[in-house]
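I had to read the description of the data format several times before I understood it. For illustration, here is how one protein appears when written out as sequence plus C-alpha coordinates:
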Amino acid sequence: MKEFTSDWALTPNLFLTKNEVEIIDCLVDHREMPVKFEENHVISFYNDNDFHLVLYFSEKEDRGFQMYIVRDFSVNVEDLIILYQLFGKLINDGLSVHILSKAQNQIDNIIYMSNTFRAMIHKDESNIFE
Protein backbone atom coordinates (compact mmCIF):
# COMPACT_ATOMS: atom_id res chain seq x y z
CA MET A 1 0.00 0.00 0.00
CA LYS A 2 1.24 3.47 -0.85
CA GLU A 3 1.92 5.42 2.30
CA PHE A 4 0.36 8.87 2.26
CA THR A 5 2.11 11.71 4.05
CA SER A 6 -0.87 12.61 6.21
CA ASP A 7 -2.24 9.16 7.07
CA TRP A 8 -4.01 8.52 10.31
CA ALA A 9 -3.99 4.88 11.26
CA LEU A 10 -7.42 4.26 12.74
CA THR A 11 -6.48 0.59 13.16
CA PRO A 12 -3.42 -1.31 11.90
CA ASN A 13 -5.25 -1.91 8.59
CA LEU A 14 -7.60 1.10 8.30
CA PHE A 15 -6.23 4.48 7.30
CA LEU A 16 -7.63 7.95 6.71
CA THR A 17 -5.98 10.72 4.75
CA LYS A 18 -7.22 14.22 4.08
CA ASN A 19 -4.23 15.23 1.95
CA GLU A 20 -6.13 16.44 -1.09
CA VAL A 21 -3.13 16.54 -3.44
CA GLU A 22 -2.38 12.89 -2.76
CA ILE A 23 -6.06 11.92 -2.94
CA ILE A 24 -6.50 13.69 -6.29
CA ASP A 25 -3.32 12.03 -7.63
CA CYS A 26 -4.69 8.65 -6.56
CA LEU A 27 -8.09 9.35 -8.14
CA VAL A 28 -6.48 10.44 -11.40
CA ASP A 29 -4.19 7.38 -11.43
CA HIS A 30 -7.26 5.13 -11.11
CA ARG A 31 -9.40 7.16 -13.52
CA GLU A 32 -11.91 7.92 -10.77
CA MET A 33 -11.68 11.72 -10.62
CA PRO A 34 -15.14 13.32 -10.40
CA VAL A 35 -16.11 15.87 -13.03
CA LYS A 36 -18.67 17.91 -11.08
CA PHE A 37 -17.63 19.51 -7.82
CA GLU A 38 -21.03 21.03 -7.07
CA GLU A 39 -22.30 17.73 -5.71
CA ASN A 40 -21.13 15.20 -3.12
CA HIS A 41 -19.36 12.06 -4.32
CA VAL A 42 -18.68 8.61 -2.90
CA ILE A 43 -16.01 6.85 -4.95
CA SER A 44 -14.66 3.39 -4.25
CA PHE A 45 -12.02 1.38 -6.03
CA TYR A 46 -9.45 -1.32 -5.44
CA ASN A 47 -5.69 -1.03 -5.62
CA ASP A 48 -4.10 -4.46 -5.46
CA ASN A 49 -5.63 -6.00 -2.31
CA ASP A 50 -6.64 -2.66 -0.78
CA PHE A 51 -10.05 -1.01 -0.78
CA HIS A 52 -10.16 2.78 -1.21
CA LEU A 53 -13.20 4.85 -0.32
CA VAL A 54 -13.10 8.53 -1.23
CA LEU A 55 -15.67 11.01 0.01
CA TYR A 56 -16.01 14.44 -1.56
CA PHE A 57 -18.04 16.97 0.38
CA SER A 58 -19.31 19.82 -1.80
CA GLU A 59 -20.83 22.09 0.85
CA LYS A 60 -18.89 25.33 1.19
CA GLU A 61 -18.34 24.97 4.94
CA ASP A 62 -17.08 21.40 4.63
CA ARG A 63 -15.69 21.23 1.07
CA GLY A 64 -12.97 18.71 0.36
CA PHE A 65 -11.83 15.10 0.07
CA GLN A 66 -11.31 12.32 2.59
CA MET A 67 -9.95 8.90 1.68
CA TYR A 68 -10.25 5.76 3.75
CA ILE A 69 -8.07 2.77 2.89
CA VAL A 70 -8.57 -0.76 4.18
CA ARG A 71 -5.45 -2.80 3.65
CA ASP A 72 -6.11 -6.30 2.29
CA PHE A 73 -9.84 -5.71 2.75
CA SER A 74 -10.97 -9.25 1.93
CA VAL A 75 -9.03 -10.56 4.92
CA ASN A 76 -9.48 -7.56 7.23
CA VAL A 77 -13.28 -7.54 7.20
CA GLU A 78 -13.35 -6.40 10.82
CA ASP A 79 -11.83 -3.09 9.66
CA LEU A 80 -14.62 -2.70 7.10
CA ILE A 81 -17.10 -3.28 9.93
CA ILE A 82 -15.38 -0.62 12.04
CA LEU A 83 -15.63 1.85 9.15
CA TYR A 84 -19.30 0.93 8.66
CA GLN A 85 -19.95 1.53 12.38
CA LEU A 86 -18.03 4.83 12.33
CA PHE A 87 -20.22 6.12 9.52
CA GLY A 88 -23.29 4.86 11.38
CA LYS A 89 -22.30 6.88 14.44
CA LEU A 90 -21.79 10.02 12.32
CA ILE A 91 -25.15 9.46 10.61
CA ASN A 92 -26.86 9.09 14.01
CA ASP A 93 -25.25 12.39 15.03
CA GLY A 94 -26.84 13.97 11.94
CA LEU A 95 -23.59 14.63 10.07
CA SER A 96 -23.61 14.44 6.24
CA VAL A 97 -26.36 11.83 6.37
CA HIS A 98 -26.84 11.38 2.61
CA ILE A 99 -23.20 10.94 1.60
CA LEU A 100 -22.32 8.80 4.64
CA SER A 101 -25.37 6.58 4.05
CA LYS A 102 -24.22 6.07 0.47
CA ALA A 103 -20.70 5.21 1.67
CA GLN A 104 -22.10 2.89 4.31
CA ASN A 105 -24.11 1.04 1.65
CA GLN A 106 -20.98 0.51 -0.44
CA ILE A 107 -19.12 -0.84 2.58
CA ASP A 108 -22.04 -3.13 3.40
CA ASN A 109 -21.87 -4.57 -0.13
CA ILE A 110 -18.12 -5.20 0.22
CA ILE A 111 -18.63 -6.92 3.58
CA TYR A 112 -21.38 -9.09 2.09
CA MET A 113 -19.10 -10.11 -0.80
CA SER A 114 -15.91 -10.48 1.29
CA ASN A 115 -15.80 -14.30 1.02
CA THR A 116 -16.00 -14.05 -2.77
CA PHE A 117 -13.32 -11.35 -2.89
CA ARG A 118 -11.09 -13.39 -0.56
CA ALA A 119 -11.48 -16.48 -2.76
CA MET A 120 -10.56 -14.49 -5.87
CA ILE A 121 -7.72 -12.43 -4.39
CA HIS A 122 -6.09 -15.20 -2.35
CA LYS A 123 -6.89 -18.15 -4.63
CA ASP A 124 -3.25 -19.30 -4.60
CA GLU A 125 -3.04 -19.26 -0.80
CA SER A 126 -5.15 -22.30 0.02
CA ASN A 127 -4.26 -22.38 3.72
CA ILE A 128 -4.51 -18.66 4.49
CA PHE A 129 -7.68 -19.13 6.58
CA GLU A 130 -7.03 -22.42 8.26
The mean pLDDT is 88. The helical segments are 20-29, 77-92, 97-112, 114-121. DSSP finds four helices and five strands in the chain.
